[in-house]
């Protein structure tokens, strides 16, 4: 858990458990990695939360720049007041174990029409389901894998919400019915 009223710069983070309430029960919004800044967050190293199922990553800044991969077995939430930038060649993966986990990236969370989501060429955004939002949304490759459950699975869905412009520079794929 990283909290700051100013900026945060992180390098490599590895987490092996979600946080829990004092009573030992999981609570809404639990995360193996939670980074919350009143200023900007710059990620120059990887975030890995894969040692158990359903490990979540939650990043909540003013602006965020992701320069290295993020991988989680559960959900990945990136919710910025203004801009979200994903560097070229970076992969953000929710649901890395194929069990369950959605990717949600929101720019302009405060709704003032100042906040773009830009995932540069060569980037990959993937999860069981993927939701991308911002004033303008520009992405390269986006893949929703669906869930391969024992009862037939759930299809993957990709949702892109842009107030102004949505641009896809690569493939956007929502895979079948979730069956193996």
Describe this entry's structure for a reader.
With 180 residues, the chain is mostly beta strands. The protein is built from no helices and 21 strands. A 7-stranded parallel sheet has the order 1-4-7-10-13-16-19, with no helix packed on it. Strands 2-5-8-11-14-17-20 form a 7-stranded parallel sheet, with no helix packed on it. The chain has a 7-stranded parallel sheet with strand order 3-6-9-12-15-18-21, with no helix packed on it. The termini are far apart.
**Residues in helix, %:** under 10%
Please state how the strands of the largest beta sheet are arranged side by side.
1-4-7-10-13-16-19
Instruction: From the alpha carbons, calculate the radius of gyration and give it in angstroms.
Output: 16 Å
- Identify the quaternary structure here: single chain
Task: Give the total of beta strands.
Answer: 21
Give the topology string: H per helix, E per strand.
EEEEEEEEEEEEEEEEEEEEE
Distance between the termini: 35 Å
Return the structural class: mainly beta
At a glance:
By secondary structure, the protein is mainly β. Helices cover 0% and strands 42% of the residues.
């Amino acid at each position: 858990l990283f909290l700051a009223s100013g900026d945060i710069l992180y390098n490599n983070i590895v987490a092996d458990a979600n946080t829990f309430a004092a009573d030992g029960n999981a609570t809404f919004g639990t995360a193996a990695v939670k980074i919350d800044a009143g200023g900007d967050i710059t990620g120059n190293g990887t975030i890995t939360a894969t040692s158990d199922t359903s490990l979540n990553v939650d990043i909540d800044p003013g602006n965020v720049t992701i320069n290295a991969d993020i991988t989680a077995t559960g959900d990945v939430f990136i919710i910025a007041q203004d801009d979200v930038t994903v560097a070229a060649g970076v992969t953000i993966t929710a649901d890395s174990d194929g069990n369950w986990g959605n990717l949600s990236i929101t720019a302009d969370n405060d709704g003032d029409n100042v906040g773009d989501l830009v995932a540069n060429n060569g980037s990959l955004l993937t999860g069981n389901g993927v939701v991308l939002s911002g004033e303008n949304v520009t992405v390269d490759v986006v893949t929703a894998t669906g869930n391969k459950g024992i009862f037939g699975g759930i299809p993957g869905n990709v949702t892109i919400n842009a107030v102004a412009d949505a641009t896809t520079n690569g493939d956007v794929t929502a895979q079948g019915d979730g069956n193996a």
